[in-house]
Amino acid sequence: MSRARRRDTAPEMELRRRLHARGLRYRVALPIPGQRRRTIDIAFTRHRLAVFVDGCFWHGCPEHGTSPRANSEWWKTKIAANRARDADSDRLLRSLGWTVVRVWEHEPADRAADNVVEALAAMSG
């Protein structure tokens, strides 16, 4: 577990490349206000748009999430806690006026970038 990347994962980097190629500029690993240990993967601060790239295993993807056989009850609890933390982060950000976009790591980067661009367009006009 300690070797699992927390940021700059391949899906996150690919999405960041696609967004940058579209001329968008953003902040990376921006702390969530009032939550020092939680960060927004990709933040558009001017628009208050928070983008999270969720790993299928760590965040319990309904399509690709797996459950290890060894110590399965512990993992079930761990992933449920991750999902609860995600929901709490979403709630906190929304209460502060942010829009939250969550992307699964298995989503094609172009489609994820389209979702982000659509969210920004909806906020701008």
TrEMBL record:
GO molecular function: endonuclease activity; hydrolase activity
Keywords: DNA damage, DNA repair, Endonuclease, Hydrolase, Nuclease
Superkingdom of the organism of origin: Bacteria
InterPro entries tied to this protein: DNA_mismatch_endonuc_vsr, Restrct_endonuc-II-like
Protein family membership: Belongs to the Vsr family.
Protein name in UniProt: Very short patch repair endonuclease
SUPFAM superfamilies xref list: Restriction endonuclease-like (SSF52980)
GO annotation (BP), single: mismatch repair
